[in-house]
């Protein structure tokens, strides 16, 4: 099946340069949006059609829209960076496109072709390139591709109509005051996902399931919540929105993908980058008892979380019903900072990309 070209219908009233510059001076994260969005329709029997870049605007949704009732919704998150020569590049959009397809399969939704996903991201970045921060630091243009069911009806079945959209939001440095370790609450009575469920799909339901535990973590004075496996309640899995890494003297370990963890793009990138820097990196299992014992003995040198938004976040304090301990003296570790710099240098074009991860937007 051929993919439709994206018809450009740009806004006749984009934000003024002065208004846009004022936003870019302090964009925060996910608070402001660019002038345009990409919209592509899918209809059973017709496939993907009516691909358009149009002015950013609210959607009109019928109260009986099937997404509102049965949650057929998936999304992705990726960034475009301004490079030192003024060009703009996306980071690993093909990997996001493939994960988007996997999420669609899990939720019985149509799979968007990889080339159409990337073309949609290219289109909005090309049209709204002035929104890509030019400061040369960690600032970026965050892209949010997503798909929802658009059929109207209350029958419990996969919908026969869908909308795919891409919106974009300028993002400042996640740590404007420098990299600060976060505190973690280990939730031992709530789980994020189970094997065979939707834990490995990037769907809003997984994030909704994490909100109560995240609120409980905040009540305990913690920044983030970490989950254990749903079967034995023993093995550390991930945070509500980030993967975890454990740094030992001789190796770097991230929890094995079990079907209940999200296969993070940043997670995968760091597995490869660690090898480039001379570290042994691997997937494995780390129990909650092992985490605490190894931290207290000093065998576990550092712990960090990773994801698209924050890149790498060092873990400082860990709290649970069984007690509290500090990781790495509550300070960012050497390996954590080295990996973070290596990844950001590739993303921002400050160093050569040996892996072919950067995708120039012409």
Automatic annotation (TrEMBL):
Q: Which UniProt keywords apply?
A: Amino-acid biosynthesis, Aminotransferase, Branched-chain amino acid biosynthesis, Pyridoxal phosphate, Transferase
An example of a Pfam family matching this protein is: Aminotran_4
Judging by the UniProt lineage, the source's domain of life is Bacteria
Q: What class of enzyme is it?
A: transferase
Q: Which Enzyme Commission numbers does its entry carry?
A: 2.6.1.42
Names of required cofactors: pyridoxal 5'-phosphate
Output the InterPro entries linked to this UniProt entry: Aminotrans_IV (IPR001544), Aminotrans_IV_CS (IPR018300), Aminotransferase-like (IPR036038), B_amino_transII (IPR005786), BCAT-like_C (IPR043132), BCAT-like_N (IPR043131), BCAT_family (IPR033939)
- Substrates-to-products reaction catalysed: L-valine + 2-oxoglutarate = 3-methyl-2-oxobutanoate + L-glutamate; L-leucine + 2-oxoglutarate = 4-methyl-2-oxopentanoate + L-glutamate; L-isoleucine + 2-oxoglutarate = (S)-3-methyl-2-oxopentanoate + L-glutamate
Annotated pathway: Amino-acid biosynthesis; L-isoleucine biosynthesis; L-isoleucine from 2-oxobutanoate: step 4/4; Amino-acid biosynthesis; L-leucine biosynthesis; L-leucine from 3-methyl-2-oxobutanoate: step 4/4; Amino-acid biosynthesis; L-valine biosynthesis; L-valine from pyruvate: step 4/4
Which is an annotated GO molecular function term of this record?
transaminase activity
- Family statement: Belongs to the class-IV pyridoxal-phosphate-dependent aminotransferase family.
Q: Which PANTHER family match?
A: BRANCHED-CHAIN-AMINO-ACID AMINOTRANSFERASE, SUBGROUP IIII AMINOTRANSFERASE
What name does the UniProt record give this protein? Branched-chain-amino-acid aminotransferase
The organism encoding this protein is Streptomyces sanyensis
